[in-house]
Design brief:
With 129 residues, this protein is mostly helical. The chain has 4 helices and 2 strands. The protein has one domain.
């Protein structure tokens, strides 16, 4: 079932949202000082491309550096990506079939705003608790 949901997601929203993260990651990697943001953007691009069956959880050892980095990220690229998820989610919720995908888009907004200090794990992974 996850595979079917992921394939439909890929066609409806996943490809374009992942492409947005890849563009943000490339821009961040070109500017040498923002390479950690680029790495985080590439990691989330994979999550935005194939989200069902995985989840984002906070890292236990994330510190003040992640907080400061997330504030910078929100100002530079995070709010654009979150806005993309919001618009796509609303558009998907206009149809009954698109509602689960719209909700999935809404669930990606927090990770698009604060990618540092999070990791992507399989949804059934109980070792994180």
């Amino acid at each position: 079932m996850r595979t079917l949901l992921n394939v439909i997601w890929l066609v409806l929203a996943g490809f374009w949202m992942a492409l947005s993260y890849v563009v943000a990651g490339i821009i961040c990697c070109v500017l040498i000082i923002t390479i950690p943001f680029g790495i985080a953007a590439f990691r989330i691009a994979g999550f935005a491309l194939w989200p069902f069956g995985r989840m984002a959880v906070p890292k236990r050892n994330a510190g003040v550096g992640s907080l400061i980095g997330n504030i910078i990220w929100i100002i530079v690229a995070g709010w654009w990506l979150a806005l993309g998820h919001l618009v796509t989610g609303v558009l998907l919720c206009l149809t009954i079939i698109g509602i689960p995908f719209g909700i999935a888009n809404f669930k990606l907004i927090p990770i698009s705003l604060a990618p540092l200090g999070h990791e992507i794990v399989p949804a059934g992974d109980s070792s994180i608790f």
